[in-house]
């Protein structure tokens, strides 16, 4: 699933094509929006909020979430998106571009006034331009309040918005904590600070790196490296599934030497 840095880049790219421009046509291909017509709506900005994308017009906001497979495509007028036509959920046309959204599990219209209130349930957004010490403290408070293992808490969008499986694994490694460590045993404030730094460092990169090495196979410490030697100590990286509150399992990787199991309490 795209994480906050990826959605941020999508917002930047879409904003370059849409901000300040007027929609000449809109074609929503989801039942709930079948009669919606945004022709004449001027798009003022495109921004990300965690893993959510907001195309904010004068009167309406188009809210989407990419889920696992959602994509936005910026095309020349009449261009063809490189996806199966049945996956297209919306086509937005300006004089300069066709913007096509495909495989979007969440696509809705919100009144522009109060559009952010619809996302008020999210925790602090690590890429919020207004990020400050108060937001960092609130993220730490919410993470503690989950009472979950750190590897579960970091994926809780109610606690902090934007983190996904890749960042979760890398954060746990860099802080030297096993993913099943209870959040109460974790020094949360430095974890939040590191999450913010890593998200900012990667937001403008098309290829993330958490190691400082941009070479293929060496960009992450543990994510996607199950069974391979740890880049720090050489121990074989472990790979398992970790359950979440939604009942789903996510793959998680860790180094058993650099991230020892938590002490029993």
From TrEMBL:
What are the BP-aspect GO terms? Answer: base-excision repair
- Annotated Formamidopyrimidine-DNA glycosylase catalytic domain residues: 2-92
Keyword Lyase, does the record have it?
A: yes
Source organism per UniProt: Agrococcus jenensis
Q: Which domain of life is it from?
A: Bacteria
Its family remark reads:
Belongs to the FPG family.
State the UniProt keywords alphabetically.
DNA damage, DNA repair, DNA-binding, Endonuclease, Glycosidase, Hydrolase, Lyase, Metal-binding, Multifunctional enzyme, Nuclease, Zinc, Zinc-finger
- Check the record and name the Pfam families matching this protein: Fapy_DNA_glyco, H2TH
Which Gene Ontology terms cover its molecular function?
class I DNA-(apurinic or apyrimidinic site) endonuclease activity; damaged DNA binding; oxidized pyrimidine nucleobase lesion DNA N-glycosylase activity; zinc ion binding
Q: What is this protein called?
A: DNA-(apurinic or apyrimidinic site) lyase
Q: PROSITE patterns, alphabetically?
A: FPG_CAT, ZF_FPG_2
Output the Gene3D superfamilies linked to this UniProt entry: 1.10.8.50, MutM-like, N-terminal
| EC numbers | 4.2.99.18
Name the enzyme's class. lyase
Looking at the record, the residues that make up the FPG-type domain are 221-260
Q: What is the lineage of its organism?
A: Bacteria, Bacillati, Actinomycetota, Actinomycetes, Micrococcales
